[in-house]
Amino acid sequence: MSQKSPISVHILDTSRGRPATGIPITLFKEENDSWQTVGSGQTNADGRCDQFLTREQFSAGTYKVHYDVQEYFLKTTGFFFYPYIEVVFKIENAGNDQNYHIPLLLSPFGYSTYRGS
User: Fold this and answer.
1) Of 34, 37, 64, 75, which residue is least crowded by CB atoms under 10 Å?
2) For the purposes of burial, counting CB atoms within 10 Å of the CB of 64, is it exposed (0-12), middle (13-18) or buried (19 or more)?
3) 11, 62, 2: which is closest to 32 by C-alpha?
4) Model-level pTM?
5) Beta pairing partners, 103
6) CB neighbour list of residue 78: distance below 8 Å, 6 or more residues apart
7) Which residues contact 6 (CB under 8 A, 6 or more apart)?
8) What is the C-alpha separation between 89 and 21, in angstroms, rounded?
9) 91 pairs with which residues across the strands?
10) What's the confidence (pLDDT) of residue 33?
11) Interior CA angle at 46 toward 44 and 51, to 5°?
């Protein structure tokens, strides 16, 4: 996919003060009361992943980002509390000028997220 996805993520490991690299990410969309996989990838050296779906595949609806953080913490700290994190959000405007950035601030025992720009 050559064009950046309208949905992107960025993970920063606040316990280490650096981007969280190599974390598998899966994007789901709710369809008919069940979650359908829309795209997947993993965070790059800057902790970013932005290759989930094309603008043409993008539509309004309820989405879920699944951050699979267990292996990352086993490699970096040897312990974790959250094996994965899921963030559910609703998109009402899927127009061509809309981008949705879902950052995750992460540590072995906590996390926070917000809508970024």
Assistant:
1) 34
2) middle
3) 62
4) 0.92
5) 10
6) none
7) 53, 55, 58, 94, 98, 99, 100
8) 23
9) 61
10) 94
11) 45
Give pLDDT, residue 1: 46
User: From the CA atom positions of the chain, what is the Rg in Å?
Assistant: 14
**pLDDT at position 94:** 86
State the SS3 of the chain. CCCCCCEEEEEEECCCCEECCCCEEEEEEEECCEEEEEEEEECCCCCEECCCCCCCCCCCEEEEEEECCHHHHHHHCCCCCCCCEEEEEEECCCCCCCCEEEEEEEECCEEEECCEC
Cα–chain center distance at 4: 14
In this structure, what token pair is assigned to residue 47? Answer: 């902790």
